[in-house]
Amino acid sequence: MSFHFQEDPTLERHFKGHKDVVSCADFSPNNKQLATGSCDKNLMIWNLTPKARAFRFVGHTDIITGVHFSPSGSFVASSSRDQTVRLWTPSIKGESTVFKAHTASVRSVQFSSDGQRLVTASDDKSVKVWGVERKKFLYSLNRHTNWVRCARFSPDGRLVASCGDDRTVRLWDTSSRQCINIFTDYGGSATFVDFNSSGTCIASSGADNTLKIWDIRTNKLIQHYRVHSAGVNCFSFHPSGNYLISGSSDSTMKILDLLEGRLIYTLHGHKGPVLAVVFSRDGGLFASGGADSQVLMWKTNFDSLNYRDLLSRHSKRVTPDPLPHLMDIYPRSPHRHNAQNGTVEVSGHTIPMCFTNSTDFPLGGRYSVNAVERSGIPSSLTSTLENIVQQLDILTQTVAVLEERLTLTEDKLRTCLDNQVLSAKLFLTVLHKNNASKWW
């Protein structure tokens, strides 16, 4: 039995027009258009006003790998396996300008927040930055040792994050054009990278099924999610910075609450790998595309409600799913809990999009081992302490879940006992009346 509440994500529209895998998507800044690219070599601009026709732009000679609207909405940039980047006018004319400096497939493209630059990632192992106004190549960032899958500007444009098949995530300073940090520890290719809305964190996804979030101020891995059963191909931060949606080759999309550090929704809509997910600029919508050639547009809904109210409503549903395993999501290092955002484990429930949740720790928490690291204690001992504290935190979470189950059990027992006492009283009353009638 399924229940549907208004606050759950809902499928708004279904766009059909691509003849092959949908590889990328982006909303216009005014939310009136959605751009998608495909292995059919076509760029589609879907007009979101009712009954408005879509535009199909033809020009690339190979698979389109990335698409991004300019901040003004007056241009759309696309990248392709044909080694070029195109700058389109998203109108019925569909005119485009070609950028070419890469010597292999271009994997991603993105505008800077001021709309003056583009950043691209390529199989030629380079990240390149372009000037939009003069339509020319500016400079390369060359340190990757294998294909570069994705590159993104920070919100202020001072940094670039990139990732690729060399299993690294790199952070670049755009003024000095130097690599200023490297994040490793991947069991496979790093597939996608992006900054959160404040620019304080970057997230990266991997072919090893993981999602990782790093605080670039402290260079620490602060959240590590294992919620997919296959490689994670893409993700998108909600503009608030409180949520993240990911798409995977396991055919699902997952929505994470980053403040609570928990998985709150699993969405099933695509048949086959999900290759593109993106929130609209205001966060009210998100779109997805995949190997089934479908483009789906969803209404977010859940962000408009108080989170605790959402949890309390879900807890009243029947037919609960089994509680998730606590190791599905785990912290790299322990964090102090914020009393205002304390985690409460609630069993998930089946709705049109499977609702599940797990536990972790708040984003941005401070590490209790930082003081140890600063004191000069050997890193091996620090690592051991981290592991011990991590196990203690997991044990604490387990105890919290058990306590909640006991509380629920006690409530049920109390209700049963109350019902039995009431039944006994009714029985005694009836018996008393029968005896009294016999006596008279």
From TrEMBL:
<dbReference type="InterPro" id="IPR015943">
    <property type="entry name" value="WD40/YVTN_repeat-like_dom_sf"/>
</dbReference>
<feature type="coiled-coil region">
    <location>
        <begin position="385"/>
        <end position="412"/>
    </location>
</feature>
<dbReference type="InterPro" id="IPR050505">
    <property type="entry name" value="WDR55/POC1"/>
</dbReference>
<protein>
    <recommendedName>
        <fullName>POC1 centriolar protein homolog B</fullName>
    </recommendedName>
</protein>
<feature type="repeat" description="WD">
    <location>
        <begin position="267"/>
        <end position="299"/>
    </location>
</feature>
<keyword id="KW-0206">Cytoskeleton</keyword>
<feature type="repeat" description="WD">
    <location>
        <begin position="225"/>
        <end position="266"/>
    </location>
</feature>
<dbReference type="Pfam" id="PF00400">
    <property type="entry name" value="WD40"/>
</dbReference>
<dbReference type="GO" id="GO:0036064">
    <property type="term" value="C:ciliary basal body"/>
</dbReference>
<keyword id="KW-0853">WD repeat</keyword>
<feature type="repeat" description="WD">
    <location>
        <begin position="15"/>
        <end position="48"/>
    </location>
</feature>
<feature type="repeat" description="WD">
    <location>
        <begin position="57"/>
        <end position="88"/>
    </location>
</feature>
<dbReference type="GO" id="GO:0060271">
    <property type="term" value="P:cilium assembly"/>
</dbReference>
<dbReference type="InterPro" id="IPR036322">
    <property type="entry name" value="WD40_repeat_dom_sf"/>
</dbReference>
<keyword id="KW-0677">Repeat</keyword>
<feature type="repeat" description="WD">
    <location>
        <begin position="141"/>
        <end position="182"/>
    </location>
</feature>
<dbReference type="GO" id="GO:0005814">
    <property type="term" value="C:centriole"/>
</dbReference>
<keyword id="KW-0963">Cytoplasm</keyword>
<comment type="similarity">
    <text>Belongs to the WD repeat POC1 family.</text>
</comment>
<feature type="repeat" description="WD">
    <location>
        <begin position="99"/>
        <end position="140"/>
    </location>
</feature>
<keyword id="KW-0175">Coiled coil</keyword>
<dbReference type="InterPro" id="IPR020472">
    <property type="entry name" value="WD40_PAC1"/>
</dbReference>
<dbReference type="InterPro" id="IPR019775">
    <property type="entry name" value="WD40_repeat_CS"/>
</dbReference>
<feature type="repeat" description="WD">
    <location>
        <begin position="183"/>
        <end position="224"/>
    </location>
</feature>
<dbReference type="InterPro" id="IPR001680">
    <property type="entry name" value="WD40_rpt"/>
</dbReference>
